[in-house]
TrEMBL record:
One of its GO terms (molecular function) is NADP binding. Gene3D superfamilies: 6-Phosphogluconate Dehydrogenase, domain 3, N-(1-d-carboxylethyl)-l-norvaline Dehydrogenase, domain 2, NAD(P)-binding Rossmann-like Domain. NADP(+) binds at residues 9-14, 32-34, 75-77, 103. Catalyzes the oxidative decarboxylation of 6-phosphogluconate to ribulose 5-phosphate and CO(2), with concomitant reduction of NADP to NADPH. The lineage of its organism: Bacteria, Pseudomonadati, Pseudomonadota, Alphaproteobacteria, Rhodobacterales. Belongs to the 6-phosphogluconate dehydrogenase family. This is 6-phosphogluconate dehydrogenase, decarboxylating.
């Protein structure tokens, strides 16, 4: 009997996804560039091997699939994807489907979808890391709706589910799935950064040790902040290094890596004119984190900041600041997706996107369930939707207090302060861009509008 689906690329994610597919009762054929990896995988599959067909050549791989074929690619984003499409296409028939499940730049997915001919192409974002891929990821699909409908029975079966609703949804054509995955990752950067900033206050401002910090995260994980990222932050803070017996967190270098999805989100947001400043701050913070030597020079030149803040803040203050920061950050992310829906003419259903993120993915949290409800009820900015308006009324003063105390004590909180600046901007009717318009008219005759008259091309007295 032939396999219902194929998977190419048995790395961390591909192997886990293949086991998940077999575990859900589907017959799957697998192929990997390095043959030994395929052989090891077949052994490691155990009982599931009965539903897995390992193949050692592309022709055998393609021949093992029932038609019309569907093949998932799980290889590094970029050239490897183009190479595999080029290698597979001549072996495939009209109506066969290639699905790129890696972290592609959605512009690449747009290009590949546009270039697809008789052999169909989809791009799907898969989130949840290795464990998610094995036991239930969150899946954000892009491509032709008919192609999605064909593979949806398998992809919804392997996805995470929240209250019985699968976390796998069609977001729109072409690169729509990879676009939503990129924004997911951007929000992930921001969520992580805000937690790290609060960790800095707990550690350097309030003088808590790792055990107390871990306990604080555990407590928060029972409240409004309950989420995978708060949960794992607690585990990381509590961990002991196996080499030295020291608290693990104290020996991890403070320089963060990144693969680019957060940066893509920030850049795309600028293109769309729908800024996501909290995500931008998080991307910048990762970049600056890697300049350790420069920071050492800075500390030598200016001295260390006072940092210790006594009892100026409580852990509850920090929890409330994080709640406010999180709502503001997600408001930006959803506003960006909304702008993309208009600019690209894609469905990008906001409530369904919030639903897909409720389980399986890295940013999963209890708050996303309320966000799904709020976004279904109203298309206003999330900050202006119940229950988030009330939550923000309740917490923004504390966010201000935390940002102010951090500033006074020299503790950098770029993402939280950016969230506060966005909040203050969006609640200020009379802003200061009148001066910008005056400046622009002065040096460039760009003209301005007036509050007291209709028309768009007024000039200042300098025009004469
Ligand atoms: P790995 O490095 O673990 O695996 C890469 C796989 O791709 C291997 O099977 C490798 O084969 C194969 N491969 C590499 N280059 C080529 C090539 N030029 N031609 C053919 N096959 C190739 O990567 P991951 O599983 O971590 O990541 C795969 C994709 O999933 C990436 O796009 C990643 O961004 C994305 N992703 C990863 C997540 C994670 O948590 N790791 C989460 C979500 C998405 P070989 O054995 O021969 O080297």
């Amino acid at each position: 009997t032939t396999s219902q689906i194929g998977l190419l690329g048995l790395g961390t994610m591909g192997a886990a996804l293949a086991l998940n597919i077999a575990n859900k009762g589907f017959r799957i054929a697998v192929f990997n560039r390095t043959t030994q990896v395929t052989r090891d995988f077949a052994v490691q599959a155990g009982d599931l091997a009965a539903r897995i067909t390992p193949t050692e050549g592309l022709q055998d791989f393609v021949a093992a699939l029932s038609r019309p074929r569907a093949i998932i690619l799980m290889v590094p984003a970029g050239q490897a994807v183009d190479d595999q499409i080029a290698a597979l296409t001549p072996l495939l028939d009209a109506g066969d489907l290639i699905i790129d499940a890696g972290n592609a730049d959605f512009h690449d997915t747009n290009r590949r979808a546009a270039a697809a001919g008789d052999v169909r192409f989809m791009g799907i974002g898969v989130s949840g890391g290795e464990d998610g891929a094995r036991h239930g990821p969150s899946i954000m699909a892009g491509g032709d709706r008919a192609d999605w409908d064909r593979v949806a029975p398998i992809l919804t079966a392997i996805a995470a589910s929240h209250d019985g609703v699968p976390c796998a949804t069609w977001m729109g054509p072409a690169g729509a799935g990879h676009f939503v995955k990129a924004v997911h990752n951007g929000i992930e950067y921001a969520d992580m950064q805000m937690i790290a900033e609060v960790y800095g206050i707990l550690r350097d401002g309030m003088g808590l040790d790792n055990a107390a910090i871990a306990k604080t995260f555990r407590t928060w994980n029972d409240g409004a902040l309950a989420s995978y990222l708060i949960e794992i932050s607690g585990h990381v803070a509590a961990a002991t290094d196996t080499l030295t017996g020291q608290p693990l967190l104290d020996i991890i270098t403070d320089a963060a890596g990144q693969k680019g999805t957060g940066r893509w989100t920030a850049i795309e947001a600028q293109h769309l004119g729908a800024p996501v400043p909290v995500i931008e701050a998080a991307v910048a913070a990762r970049n600056l984190s890697s300049r350790r030597d420069e920071r050492a020079q800075g500390q030598a030149a200016f001295g260390a900041a006072p940092q210790a803040m006594g009892d100026a803040l409580t852990a509850t203050d920090l929890e409330r600041a994080l709640i406010a920061g999180k709502i503001i950050c997600y408001a930006q992310g959803f506003a960006m997706i909304d702008a993309a829906a208009r600019a690209f003419d894609w469905p990008l259903p906001l409530p369904d996107i919030a639903k897909v993120w409720r389980a399986g993915c890295i940013i999963r949290s209890v708050m996303l369930d309320d966000m799904a409800t709020a976004l279904a009820r109203s298309d206003a900015n999330l900050m202006l939707s119940a229950p988030f308006t009330d939550l923000l009324r309740d917490t923004h003063v504390t966010l201000r207090k935390v940002v102010a105390q951090a500033a006074l004590h020299g503790l950098p909180v770029p993402a939280l302060s950016s969230a506060l600046a966005y909040f203050d901007t969006m609640r200020t009717h009379r802003g200061t861009a009148n001066l910008l318009q005056g400046q622009r008219d002065f040096f460039g005759r760009h003209g301005f509008e007036r509050l007291d008259r209709d028309g768009t091309d007024f000039h200042g007295p300098w025009a004469d």
